[in-house]
Structures are given as C-alpha cells and as structure tokens.
Design brief:
about 350 residues, mainly alpha, ABC transporter involved in vitamin B12 uptake, BtuC, 14 helices, globular
Length: about 350
C-alpha cells in the first residue's frame, strides 16, 4: 500500500467514528424523541426533499435549536482543542505540551472572566479577549522558561507554563470574587459548556477555519522542525518564523474554543497522544486526525455529560477530567524523556 493510502486509512476510520458519535449525539438525549422522527426531520431539511417527520413543534425546536447545534459545537470545540494541542506539541517538540500546560487556556480564561465581570460578557469582545489572553499566557510561559535558563529546553518551558497557569488562575479567582452575583455564571463557564446554540457556532466559525487551516498547512514544516532547528535551517526553513505562525494559530484555536465553551481540559493532550500511538508521528497525519478525533472525543464526552444524570446535566469538563487525569498519569509513565 502507498504512503498516501497508509495516511488515508486512519483518517477514514476517524471520520466513521466521528459520524457515529454525531449520530448518537443527535439521537440520544434526556428528552425522548423518536429516532425515526429525528431521521426524517433531518432528511426534510435537505434541498428538494419534503418529508413528514411526525414530530411536534416542541420536538422540532428541541432538535434543531438545542440538540443539533450542541452536537456541532461540541465537535468544533473538541477539534480545535485537539489540533491546538498537537500544534503546541509540534512547536515545542514535546508530547506533554498542551493548551492548559502552557498557559494559553488560563490566559484566555482570565481575559474572558474580566469581560464577564467588568463589561457584562459582551459577545463581540469575548473572542478577541480570549485570543489576547491565550497569546499572553503562552508568551509569559515562554519568557519565564527562557529566563529560568537556556539549558532547560522544552521541559523548562512546560514547568514555566504550569507556574504561569497557576498564577493566571489565581488572578481569575480574584477577579471573579469582585462580582459575587456573577459567580454561578462564571463557575458554569469554568466547568465547560457546549450548549451555546447556533450563535456561538457562527461566532467562532471564522476563527476555527483560519486557525485549523494554518496548522494543517504547516504539517510538513512541523515534521522538518521535529528533527531540530539546525537541520531545518540547513534545508532552507525559517524555523523561528514557522514556529511563531503555528504558535499563533494554536493560540487562536484555543481562544476560540475557550470563548464559547469555557475551560475543558485534557482534550489537547489525550487525543494527539492517542493519534500518535495509532497512526505515527508525522504531523501531516497527526494534525487532521487530532481534529477529527478531538471532535469525536468531546462529542462522546458531552453525550455522557447530558445523559448520565438525566434530566440533570454533568459539566462536560468533569467528564473529560475523569478520562484525562488517569490518562495523563499513564502518559507521564510512558514518556521516558520529556525534553527532546
């Protein structure tokens, strides 16, 4: 089988898994809606198709105004977090790098919390503020890592990211205490929520497309960078410029996800690591598979979150933590050398 065929097969498998998870997300929920009715209602939305689903107006609204956008938003957010994690890991040549370990998510969380507390959560400012916070968080981690010592490598950078994350999280806690009446709203956001609806999908769509496209186009360059900056430079690649572009794109993806879903941890480290174990280390494969796998992972996590305690809902961040925390311990044990 050709190399292209070897890359295509895992992508097809991942797309099938994603399609099944999306179907489950639409068909299963706290409200009992006929699966046949759901299928007919979805087909009825296709051009030149007219079918009677038999669903009541209330069921139609529940399906198309709540369940379908929630399923799509979970997939987009999961894909963004996973491809951002893969991008950070490629930039820093470290499989432990993650939006939450490098301060990106914490920075975005702080700035969005400030928007909620001081400006009432203006939807127009949230993505911009989240992006500024994400880039600022990574920049602080990078600056602190360099200050700590040039010999520390990417392991030092990750440790600096942990310190920056702790500091920014403390600042976020301080800011949210300034407006006690917004605590419930902020805590709900911190624990993760993908029930924002169509408005949230359209809000992050441009950012999601741009950030994902940039990282996917840099897959080959990340493969070259993985062998070292000197070798990359000898091949005519401007390593610093490529890293900076991917870093900005990964931060934009993280910020977009955080802006509409809150803080959902572990997706950015669990999914890329599984992808590498199953499909190899080439970023031309890892990046697209991470997006598709992240979409499926978070969709299934959201399905668990909204059904395991039905009619009540479990925060989606709790579900990803239940899966991600033990997985993170396993990754630590399997990773023989963090710095490369």
């Amino acid at each position: 089988m050709t190399s292209a065929g070897l890359r295509l097969r895992p992508l097809i498998v991942a797309l099938v898994v994603l399609a099944l998870s999306l179907a489950l997300g639409v068909l299963v929920g706290a409200a009992g809606i006929s699966p046949r009715g759901i299928a007919l209602a979805l087909l009825d939305r296709l051009p030149f198709v007219s079918l009677d689903s038999g669903l009541s107006p209330v069921e139609q609204n529940l399906l198309f105004q709540l369940r379908v956008p929630r399923v799509l938003l979970a997939a987009v957010v999961g894909g963004l977090l996973a491809i951002a994690g893969a991008g950070y890991q490629g930039v820093f040549r470290n499989p432990m790098a993650d939006p939450y370990l490098l301060g990106a998510a914490a920075g975005a969380g702080l700035t969005v919390t400030m928007i909620v507390v001081f400006l009432g959560g203006d939807a127009r400012l949230v993505p911009v503020a989240a992006f500024a916070g994400a880039v600022g968080g990574v920049f602080l981690a990078y600056a602190l890592g360099n200050t700590a010592g040039r010999g520390g490598g990417t392991a030092t950078l990750v440790l600096a990211g942990v310190a920056v994350t702790s500091f920014l999280t403390a600042l976020q806690t301080f800011v949210q205490q300034l407006k006690v009446d917004e605590l419930q709203r902020i805590y709900s956001w911190i624990l993760g929520d993908v029930g924002g609806g169509w408005e949230q999908i359209w809000l992050i769509a441009p950012y999601a497309v741009v950030s994902s496209a940039v990282m996917l186009l840099h897959g080959r360059l990340l493969d070259v960078l993985s062998v070292g900056d000197e070798e990359a430079t000898s091949l005519g690649l401007r390593a610093a410029r490529a890293r900076f572009i991917v870093l900005l794109a990964a931060s934009l993806a993280t910020a977009s996800a955080v802006a509409v879903s809150g803080l959902i941890a572990f997706v950015g480290i669990v999914v890329p690591h599984v992808v590498r174990r199953l499909a190899g280390w080439s970023y031309r494969v890892v990046l697209p598979l991470s997006f598709v796998g992240g979409a499926a992972f978070l969709e299934l996590a959201d399905l668990v979150a909204r059904t395991v305690l039905a009619p009540a809902e479990l925060p989606i961040g709790v579900v990803t933590a239940f899966v991600g925390a033990p997985f993170f311990v396993v990754v630590l044990r399997l990773t023989k050398r963090v710095d490369t």
